[in-house]
Design brief:
The complex is a heterotrimer. Helices cover 74% and strands 0% of the residues of chain A. By secondary structure, chain A is an all-alpha fold. Chain A has one domain: ABC transporter involved in vitamin B12 uptake, BtuC (Orthogonal Bundle), CATH 1.10.3470. In chain A, helix 2 crosses helix 13, helix 3 crosses helix 13 and helix 5 packs antiparallel against helix 6. The longest helix of chain A is centred in the last third of the chain and has 31 residues. Chain B is an alpha/beta fold. In chain B, helix 4 packs across helix 5 and helix 14 packs across helix 15. Chain B has 18 helices and 20 strands. By secondary structure, chain C is mainly α. In chain C, 72% of the residues lie in helices and 2% in strands. The longest helix of chain C has 27 residues. The chains are: A mainly alpha, B alpha/beta, C mainly alpha. Chains in contact: A-B, A-C, B-C. The interface between B and C is large, with 53 and 40 residues.
Chain lengths: 333, 509, 331
Amino acid sequence: MTTLRKIFLRREAGIAVMIVLFCLAVGAVKPQFLTLDQLRIILLLTPLIMIGAMGQMLVIVARHVDLSIGSMLGVSAMVSGMLYRYDATWFGVDLPWWSGIPISIVVGALLGLGNGLLITLFRLPAIIVTLGTLSLYRGLTFIISNAKQIDRQWIPSELKGLAQTSPIMGIPWIIFIAFGVALLTYFFAMHTRVGRQIFALGSNPVAAPLRGIKVNQVTLLVFAISGALSGLAGILYASRWGFVNPSNTGSGFEFQVIAAVVIGGASINGGVGTVLGTVLGVLLLGCVSAALPLLGIPGTSQAAIYGAVILIALVIDRSVRQQGIASLKRARA
Amino acid sequence: MTDTTAVAPLISARGIGKTFATVDVLRDVDLDLLPGEIHALLGENGAGKSTFAKILAGVHRPTRGSITLNGKPVEVTSPVVAQKLGITLIHQEPISFPDLSVAENLVIGAAEDGWFSRVPWAEMTREANRLMDLLGVRIDVTRPMRGLSIADQQMVEIARALASNSRLIIMDEPTAPLTPREVETLFAIARKLRDEGRTIVFISHRLEEVRALCDRVTIFRDGNKIATDTIGNLSDADIIRLMIGRPVKEYMHKTGATIGEVALQVEGLTLPGVFSDISFSVRKGEIVGLGGLVGAGRTDVAKAIFGVTPAASGTVSINGKRVSITDPSQAIALGLAFVPEDRAVAGIFRTLSVEQNISVAVPKQLAPGGFIRRAVERAMGEDAVRKLSIRLASLRQPIGELSGGNQQKAILARWLLTDPGVLILDEPTRGIDIGVKAEFYSIIGELAAQGRAILLISSELPELLALCDRVLVMSEGRLTADIPRAEATQEAVMRAAVPRKSTTEGVAA
Amino acid sequence: MSTIKTAAPAQADISPVRPRWQTLLIRPETMTFMLLVVGVFAGSLLSPFFLDLSYILRSFTLYSELAIVALVLTMVIIAGEIDLSPAANMALSACIFAWAQASGVPIPLAIVIGLLSGLAMGALNAFLVIGLQLPSIIVTIGTLTLFRGLAQVLAGDKSIRVPEWFIGVDKIMLAGVPLPVVLFIVLAIGLGIVLGGTIFGRNIYQIGTNEVAARHAGIRSARIKSTLFLLVGLVASVAGIMTASRLGSVRYDIALGGELQMVLMAMLGGTYIFGGRGTILGTFLAAWLLVIVSTGMIVANVLPAVQLVVLGGLLIVAIIATNLIYSRTQR
């Protein structure tokens, strides 16, 4: 039994070790990889994925998958973007620069709730529903924006400033926001009743209603959170990149996020996942992404690497579980 | 011991009946459970004791009857409601959230606080440890439930019952997977709980344990409550007689069939943790019964022979030749057939037509040129309907619309089409009405007369005794008896089926 | 054999069978067919071109590759699994084929290489899903990302051209019908016969309905499912190469988002997402329906964005509808 515990503990430690080894390996070939500047670059690659990964982790822990997060990111970013552009024309007054943040979060939450309603009301598998909303919401982005991009001049500069710097050691605000979300997720997942119920639901969905867990409501909450966090990632996209484009914004986001969550140790079968592991997973992918251009590997191979990573993580997960179960069976016989 | 006449019952059941589909599993059960007693429910497989307990625990709703708790009528509509009423059922395979810690499993879902209220980890852990100490068990409450031994899982379930202050704790066959020491621990706890004034219901087959632990006993048979009495007033013989004693109706006596050479020979079959060293043979024309209690491993042996989950070691020989079967398709090619016990799970294709269900195991007959001949399929179906008197509206209707008995006949028809030399039947008449059972018995007899070797796995003693030339008995993964027809009695089979304790020191109170 | 009368009342035994016409007509395929008729009607109102058969046929060629793969994908879904990687497979196979022939490999050999790579991709899926028992949905999301990514690595952002004579498979006409459409129809007929009339096809339904029972009945489900994944891989590579011929060049983003359209065709055709039900006919009709809807939207000058919304919405509506129809009969 203690060996099983060691396996669980090992996962996070294992990822941390992999990060260190990877960075050392790359640093050996390209010493500039191990500079503080490089750290900044790595960290800047991660905040959006970090935020999305927190939501996706909860979804996966609940034994679902949300493929629509990229599109939800796009819609919520676009809604705020449109408001920034047309606020004067529509309302006669300029909205404050920070108003996009709550707006995007709310829009995202509503979209996520839409996913959740389809899943709980009609008992449909999350994967197919979110495959559908992936397209549906992406289309919404085009419709809302009339297929036009929101350019740099329309995004408030204070918003863009969040991604540049802050009084604290010059580390951009969005990195703090991202880690702040991670911290909040930790508290939610580990220290609130409903957070624990999410884990219970994914661990044994059959037993959950028997123990008084309101399955439908918890499921709706999980998807709403996933949507809200996608919304937050959306407005931060505008902050980071300075524009919102109907076809690109958020495109492919879901695969990066799922890869990070799966590497981070969350089990596809639900019930297992830690914030620390997910954060490490995001960081590992960040390091890999940052290393690629340095090593001369075209950025186009990112997708391939993410795909391979997902598969490898799945296989590792399965063999760890098998071993665990097998050793228990032997012990019992 | 409490004087049963003076104390008001904790729970009273009156006229409890339960019908599943068309089968009555419980009829008119009246029972009082007193506070501060350990009450055993005894009975054969399918006697109704488990169903009754599940009704008390809110897993099933009774079709008829009423329940009063402390004098007030209650409706136990779900396990959650049962918990609130102070009734906890501890399953044989405890249900839990494997990825959550022990301490969490104790409290999850039970608290009435809002969603976003803080989880009091420190307090939870303290309370969990307190309960563990109370039970005298050493379990690390911070570790996940996954991987705990069954004994420990049961302890956690009991702790949960205590945490929710249950007054009635029902244990369903708890000792089956436990070592003698673990059983000791469990009994000590049960006694402690009883002395606190709680009520323990103990469902078991093991007579010595019941005698050692329980105050009163209720015996079920065929869905009826037969007797309730203080344990001291009944001898073992009395109990067994009450459990199984009934005029053994001769549904049919086995038609004389010539018994030929050995068709199926099994030697040293072992699957660690499930069954070990199983050796027996079945001859042509012979009907060999395989009796035993649920969980003895009989179905696993059948699945091993048939290749669904092969054994780890041991040999199987068909008609004298050693064979290696790793997949059911191989078994079928060698002339084996297997009618599984749970037809809903492993037998029927619910939404597909009856005729398709019948023809599935004989693809070569059905599609000799590669394409399915519907006329052939129709003929197969009509033939089966005629021979086995299957009642249906149309061969094209989904098999799920048929009654249990007719579904079972269709499955049997499926296998008969393969013209098997060896036919393994696993609880073939379970969930089937009396009249249809009789049809099955005569069919089985005829099959043997045709020279097939039949292995009949059954938990119904009269069935085994009426049909079989020999009765094998398994208990806890081992073969404990091989009883020829002449010496086979219900007592003999039951004795071999009920596990013996390995130590002779009893579990004295 | 002696027949012993049962004591139980007759009514409890049997429920009345539905009349034949009901089982024939009240099925998802009928819904698809009716939608198709409605769609054609609506389309004709939008534009006179719609009733021009050759116009519709030519429009179909744009979707023919996806439709062809959707036919095989239907079988995978009926068997209880799912494969989201074929569109990415198409792209990668096409890229490998194009890159091979651009490197000087003779076209026939390049085609073989392309087909083999498609087969290998299918084999990877089969190994992970059936060999390692991993859930097909996540595995194929992983392989879809991997394949698309590898296509990106291979082709970068560039287009790889194919020789002039190779271009224009969609211009080849057989009796006035473009070749890809002919292939689609032929494949549909062939697979329909296999699925409906052979043991292999039967087994697919049985595995999808109840895999445990199928195993117990001697059906070799692992072998059959593996074959299906391999088949999808192979057909996807064929489709990818066909696309190369139609477009005249190969890019990594061929059939981007195609997995949605393929799944949509299967779902609109009445394939039950949980397995055990569905028909080639249904997917066949749904493919036409999708073409009608897409073409209609183009003719009506509907923005591509709105088209996306419609497609996504259709998928959701389709699964809800099929779920409802099937759960009603699954008592």
